[in-house]
Amino acid sequence: xxxxxxxxxxxxxxxxxxxxxxxxxxxxxxxxxxxxxxxxxxxxxxxxxxxxxxxxxxxxxxxxxxxxxxxxxxxxxxxxxxxxxxxxxxxxxxxxxxxxxxxxxxxxxxxxxxxxxxxxxxxxxxxxxxxxxxxxxxxxxxxxxxxxxxxxxxxxxxxxxxxxxxxxxxxxxxxxxxxxxxxxxxxxxxxxxxxxxxxxxxxxxxxxxxxxxxxxxxxxxxxxxxxxxxxxxxxxxxxxxxxxxxxxxxxxxxxxxxxxxxxxxxxxxxxxxxxxxxxxxxxxxxxxxxxxxxxxxxxxxxxxxxxxxxx
Length: 311
What we know:
The protein is α+β, with helices and mostly antiparallel strands. 50% of the residues lie in helices and 15% in strands. It has two domains: 2-147 and 282-309, Porin chaperone SurA, peptide-binding domain (Triger factor/SurA peptide-binding fold), CATH 1.10.4030.10; 165-268, Chitinase A, domain 3, CATH 3.10.50. Strand 3 (33-37) and strand 4 form a beta hairpin.
């Protein structure tokens, strides 16, 4: 339920101090400070609470998690300096909107967040932080970022591998159909004729002319089968042409009721048309710019602040 309630504002965090804990010897261990961010602190219990809230199936790296908490502290402080804090009324309106979206009254809402171990005040604290950081992100990171058509085209031209379609081969064939229910003698006769044509082709006679000369009434007269994805050709043909280079001729192939001679004319790896992937590229480039701008902004905040990481 909590994930549903907070989906509108993103990841959650609750900052609080845990009570002191007893040990087996009866002594107590006081919660310690793990980071100082300007005039603010982050305690070990804050960090442990944050880790628990993430509810990850795998153990989180505490050092990475702490750096993330430091970044949020910096952003909240920057928002305060810039006068971009979320007012109590804005916060109350947001809570009302979330309850409305989830068809809940106040009692139902408090029960729902209570199942997550949160009081309404703790939830409001989380929500205020997320709203504030979203406001800062829009102003200092997202604002002004654009991607134009030329940038998208340049990215496409330099990353063809990302937009390649399956390899295609262009084959030309000469076919020699077998009579229906052909006897062994009939098959041998057709094979002998096909073998003779194969030898002529290998000696350099024009393949297209041989295809016209031996056309059987099936398929194109010049034997051109056009481009076909390798994965779509018959297994016998794929096996016979797999190692060919353009211009080379395969041996006789018996398949689909005929002896066949194949010449590999061309191999190509077609690309998805630019217009088909343009929106995808522009989204990718936009996200990259946002991420780079966000990292730069955070680095600026860090350089202007006093930070002690004691973990």
